Amino acid sequence: MPLVTYKNVSIKRQDKTVLKDISFDLKPSTFYYLIGKVGSGKSSLMKSMYADVPVANGETADVLGFDLLNIKSKEIPYLRRKLGIVFQDFQLLQDRSVYSNLEFVLKATGWHDKTQMSQRIGEVLKEVGMSTKSYKMPHELSGGEQQRIVIARALLNRPQLILADEPTGNLDPNTGFQILTLLHSLVESGHTVLMATHNHQLLDDFPGKVFRCINKQLLQDN
């Protein structure tokens, strides 16, 4: 059963069609690349999956059981809780520690028990190799370390689907390689990852299924 199904979907930004009549599925425990030039629609497609950009029209637009063609605003937070989102620019809260950043997300998504929150934060930090950094402030971390914290944040609510928008874009090649190794390891533990990038070298180093945004279309490599 696919986690995501789009059938004949179009996406617009400010009345301009970005992607037209696209159809694809995302299946469980699979690594997908989303390739395309800047402005080709990669980010718009990802943002449509968590209802940050509306789906203009289509036959089917289903993400984790949510119908994006008819989703109500009150349903959007519940959709986003089932997704993990990894941003290129980190979007960590600079005025609080790593632990407090993660605790903030748990509280915002309905967690109340301090012991359970502490246990979950410990689990995700261990998963991304950052167990000893919980007391650090974001500015005390390297870019690669900050991105690991962002991935930990994305994992907090045990999402089936992780959307990573250019997660290595601000990192040096070696650090980017480490982040890709981490993201690929998540597939082995049952997650599906959709990663937008324009770095074609990554496809050779870390094979996955490939979608390409070209001329407002979404094409899938064989």
Could you explain the architecture of this structure?
It is built from 7 helices and 11 strands. The protein has 222 residues and is an alpha/beta fold. The strands form 2 sheets. It has a 6-stranded mixed sheet with strand order 7-8-9-3-10-11, sandwiched between helices. α4 (114-127) crosses α5 (143-155) and α5 (143-155) runs parallel beside α6 (173-188). It is globular and about 45 Å long. The mean pLDDT is 91.
Give the strand line-up of the largest sheet.
7-8-9-3-10-11
Counting DSSP H or I runs of 4 or more residues, the number of helices is 7
Distance between the termini: 20 Å
Q: What is the helix/strand order?
A: EEEHEEEHEHHHEHEHEE
Using the alpha-carbon principal axes, give the shape. globular
**What structural class is derived from the secondary structure elements?**
alpha/beta
Describe this structure in a few short sentences.
The protein is α/β, with parallel strands linked by helices and 222 residues long. The protein is 33% helix and 27% strand.
Features of this protein?
single chain, 222 residues, alpha/beta, 6-stranded mixed β-sheet, 33% helix, 27% strand, globular
Provide the fold topology:
Blueprint: E1 4-13, E2 16-26, E3 31-35, H1 42-49, E4 55-57, E5 60-63, E6 66-67, H2 76-81, E7 83-86, H3 98-108, H4 114-127, H5 143-155, E8 161-165, H6 173-188, E9 192-197, H7 201-205, E10 209-214, E11 217-220
Parallel strand pairs: 3-9, 3-10, 7-8, 8-9
Antiparallel strand pairs: 1-2, 1-4, 1-5, 5-6, 10-11
